């Protein structure tokens, strides 16, 4: 039996590389040319042809089905790919169990929750960086000048992307308001809870602010910008905000409106209009819902096949079937690597791999060393908000990583990661201040330059 620890060793990173990881949070490659004209989905391949054991991948079946039987989720879609080929793509359980049961299908469209942050918002921000419209070291107030006072002038775009702005996790959910413009007014008034750069606090407010930066710099709303510059060029046909009503039958429902209101502290009466409406094609996140479904932190809907296109584009260094980023490749922020939020990495993918999760039960994890990614999509909040897939996502990733049989990949992975971090350090000047770049190259903690300490969260999260 192959030892997965031999295939995916725990690499020892240099001090400067560790700080690069802490600040940059890895790759976002950016599509920027004409729309795809051919079917874009990845091709299904024979696992053995890319050194993956189909027998080991089959363990995913039991792992997912046991959790379904325990009512931790109604169903899921799992997709695993390596070297540009899909080696596992399967639907499990039910897309809906109320008001009637519907079987899960591989083309189910999911509310991907916080995957919005990386797939739509961080990618859009990095496109604007690559085009020279903004810099990561720019203060937020350059683009939203109303945000002043309390040291807010020190909030940079980089601090927003890495959740070190000083903002709270979310607006006060008990306040009554609605509308995108009202959200931005609240953003302007929102007080800081910590000095900018002082602490890591995972915050939706950070990405609401970044979504507004995209809007003000490009002149397009976030959904319009992402569609024109990411989803259409890549051929991600089922990805976007506020999906068309024609797609409703393929969309996995989340909770009833009544359940969503409970996150706001509301207890709607039985007779309240709309309380028993199922959220199906309407965003589950209560703040994004108030913002009419388009926000930088949540609101995106997508499929496993579409997210596979996105992940493969990243592994290809910005290329996917003729689509190439203007800079060839570029580095972005927003990804998780090794914090309490990265349980979906599993036990065997190495440092240097990266991903993200979503509150509704979604996740993706990408490993450049093995040229593999794992996509896990579920609507674990259906029907009553009580599902839990935090451990399952990690188990699925572990099974996928352990299924790799290419022992020669060990040496290649070590070399690739070494080269990766060397390029990452050399490219810092494109995105951050000269002082920060010098500090990283010399091994001085960048966060010490800012007289700050990054603290990760204390507990794992479904978000």
List keywords for this structure.
463 residues; alpha+beta; Beta-lactamase; seven-stranded mixed beta sheet; three-stranded antiparallel beta sheet; 33% helix; disordered N terminus; disordered C terminus
What would CATH call the class? Alpha Beta
Backbone structural class: alpha+beta
Anisotropy-based shape: globular
Examine the coordinates and then state which fold CATH places here, giving the name of the CATH topology.
Beta-lactamase
Number of helices: 16
Give the CA-CA distance, first to last residue.
Answer: 35 Å
Number of domains: 1
Report the count of strand segments.
12
Q: How would you summarize what this structure contains?
A:
Helix content is 33%, strand content 11%.
Describe the protein's topology:
Layout: H1 4-7, H2 15-24, E1 43-44, H3 54-57, H4 59-69, E2 75-82, E3 85-96, E4 102-103, E5 110-111, H5 115-130, H6 157-161, H7 180-189, H8 204-218, H9 222-234, E6 240-241, H10 257-262, H11 286-290, E7 300-302, H12 304-315, E8 319-320, E9 323-324, E10 354-358, E11 362-367, E12 372-378, H13 390-402, H14 409-426, H15 434-441, H16 446-449
Parallel strand pairs: 1-3
Antiparallel strand pairs: 2-3, 2-12, 3-4, 5-7, 6-7, 8-9, 10-11, 11-12
Helix pairs in contact: 2-14, 4-13, 5-8, 5-9
């Amino acid at each position: 039996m192959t030892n997965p620890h031999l295939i995916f060793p725990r690499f020892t990173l240099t001090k400067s590389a560790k700080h690069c990881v802490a600040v940059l949070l890895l790759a976002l490659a950016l599509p920027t040319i004409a729309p795809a004209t051919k079917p874009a989905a990845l091709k299904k391949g024979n696992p053995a042809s890319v050194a993956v054991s189909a027998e080991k991948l089959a363990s995913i079946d039991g792992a997912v089905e046991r959790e379904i039987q325990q009512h931790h989720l109604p169903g899921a879609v799992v997709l695993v790919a390596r070297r540009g080929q899909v080696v596992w793509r399967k639907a499990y359980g039910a897309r809906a169990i109320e008001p009637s049961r519907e079987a899960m299908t591989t083309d189910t469209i999911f509310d991907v929750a916080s995957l919005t942050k990386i797939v739509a918002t961080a990618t859009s921000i990095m496109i604007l960086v690559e085009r020279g419209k903004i810099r990561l070291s720019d203060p937020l107030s350059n683009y939203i000048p109303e945000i002043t006072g309390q040291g807010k002038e020190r909030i940079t775009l980089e601090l927003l992307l890495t959740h070190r702005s000083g903002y709270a996790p979310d607006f006060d959910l008990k306040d009554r308001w609605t509308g995108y413009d009202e959200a931005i007014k609240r953003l302007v008034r929102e007080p800081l809870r910590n000095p900018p750069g002082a602490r890591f606090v995972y915050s939706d407010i950070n990405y609401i602010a970044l979504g507004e930066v995209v809007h003000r710099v490009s002149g397009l709303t976030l959904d319009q910008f992402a569609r024109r510059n990411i989803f259409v060029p890549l051929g991600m046909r089922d990805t976007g905000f506020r999906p068309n009503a024609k797609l409703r039958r393929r969309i996995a429902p989340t909770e009833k409106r009544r359940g969503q209101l409970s996150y706001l502290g509301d207890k709607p009466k039985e007779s309240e209009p709309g309380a028993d409406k199922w959220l199906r094609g309407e965003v589950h996140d209560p703040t994004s819902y108030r913002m009419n479904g388009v926000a930088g932190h949540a609101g995106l809907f997508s499929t496993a096949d579409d997210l596979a296109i996105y992940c493969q584009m990243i592994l290809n260094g910005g290329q996917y079937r003729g689509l190439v980023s203007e800079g060839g490749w570029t580095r972005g922020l927003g990804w998780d690597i090794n914090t309490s939020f990265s349980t979906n990495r599993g036990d065997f993918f190495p440092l240097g791999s990266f991903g993200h999760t979503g509150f509704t039960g979604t996740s993706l994890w990408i490993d450049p060393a093995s040229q593999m990614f794992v996509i896990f999509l579920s609507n674990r909040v259906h029907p009553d908000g009580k599902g839990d897939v935090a451990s399952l996502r990690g188990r699925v990733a572990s099974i996928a990583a352990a299924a790799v049989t290419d022992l020669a990949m060990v040496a290649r992975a070590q070399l690739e990661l070494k080269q990766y971090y060397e390029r990452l350090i050399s490219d810092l000047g494109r995105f951050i201040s000269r002082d920060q770049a010098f500090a990283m190259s010399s091994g001085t903690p960048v966060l010490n330059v800012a007289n700050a300490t990054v603290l990760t969260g204390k507990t794992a999260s479904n978000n």
